[in-house]
Amino acid sequence: MAIAIIVPGRDVSLLKQHIENHLQGAAPVWVYPDIPDPDQVLMAVVWKHPPGSLLAFPHLRVVQSLGAGVEHLLRDPQLPGQARICRIVDPDLALGMCHYTAMAVLNIHKQWWQLQEQQAQGIWAEPVPEVVPLTIGVLGMGELGVPVAKTLRSLGFEVMGYSRTAKIVEGIRVFSEGELSAAAFAKKVNTLVCVLPLTPQTEGILNREVFEAMPRGSYIINIARGGHLVDADLLAALDAGNIERAVLDVFHIEPLPTEHPFWTHPKVTLTPHIASVTNQANAAALVAENYQRAVKGQDLKFPVDPGAGY
Ligand code: NDP
């Protein structure tokens, strides 16, 4: 049996080499579209695969996403029904999300953008600008949201979390979706960090209702997916002053089109989907382990629930 890597437009030679090192010749690793024998493919390792391309493999048993999110897979209407979908769960990925969020939150708290502006104008501010008090709500308390929330808590901020089902996290009050609507949760905080998976239920969750529920002059940090945000609602909220600043790492269309107003909006800071990037070596170790588990008929690591969408 074989493994097919399907990651169009990216150099996957290092990933391939890492997987081969782990498997020590136990299975060939092919890179799409150069698949010599589709009948042999037991596992596909994918990121933004061409929809329908997985149907070429009649004996596919595992589809391993190269990211934590799997909406790119679940949106393929031609997903082979017999294959289990797995995703990346990796402490290094979580650490990257913690660092990014801490950076964004501390920049907001210390008014970093204002300080840079003052430097550009040669102003030595007296009195010193006050720090901005933040109460932070983390939307999504999963593998990434919990460490993000704990990191922010360890920096001394008041933090609360929001998840689909009820859960207990030490030191952080978590509200479930059944207990509070997203807008009612947003009302309790002045900074929202979105770390949700993109599902039909969470699509567009960062919208006008949420922005209007938050105290005037609040902050939005979106490190999940562009589809969580209603762009026009955010632009209106920024211009009206409900939202003071947005830090955005993810967008509906990536790369963000050059004409999009986010590029030049004075209250938007954007980054090119780099909040945290999958570590190739760690991903390869997981691919090799899940391949071996599949061959032995064992449970796979980090399977997703297609019904829940994550
Ligand atoms: P998990 O599946 O571990 O956690 C998802 C969390 O969201 C859970 O707490 C879940 O609730 C909650 N949730 C799901 N649906 C709802 C809902 N309708 N209402 C409220 N809460 C909900 O995911 P991860 O933490 O691993 O990843 C989250 C996302 O981060 C990924 O899907 C991906 O899109 C994004 N990401 C972005 C990166 C970047 O560089 N910008 C890098 C990596 C990931 P419950 O606990 O009850 O199940």
List keywords for this structure.
single chain; 310 residues; alpha/beta; Rossmann fold; 2 domains; 7-stranded parallel beta sheet; 5-stranded parallel beta sheet; 9 helices; elongated; binds NADPH dihydro-nicotinamide-adenine-dinucleotide phosphate
Write up what this structure looks like.
This protein is α/β, with parallel strands linked by helices. It has two domains: 2-90 and 278-296, NAD(P)-binding Rossmann-like Domain (Rossmann fold), CATH 3.40.50.720; 91-270, NAD(P)-binding Rossmann-like Domain (Rossmann fold, 3-Layer(aba) Sandwich). The protein is 29% helix and 17% strand. The protein is built from nine helices and twelve strands. A seven-stranded parallel beta sheet has the order 8-7-6-9-10-11-12. α7 links the parallel β9 and β10 (218-222). α1 (13-23) crosses α9 and α3 (91-109) crosses α5 (145-154). The longest helix has 19 residues, at 91-109. The two termini are 28 Å apart. The model has no long low-confidence stretch (mean pLDDT 97). Residues 67-69, 93, 140-145, 162-165, 167, 177, 195-199, 201-202, 223-225, 249-250, 273, 275-276, 310 line the site of NADPH dihydro-nicotinamide-adenine-dinucleotide phosphate.
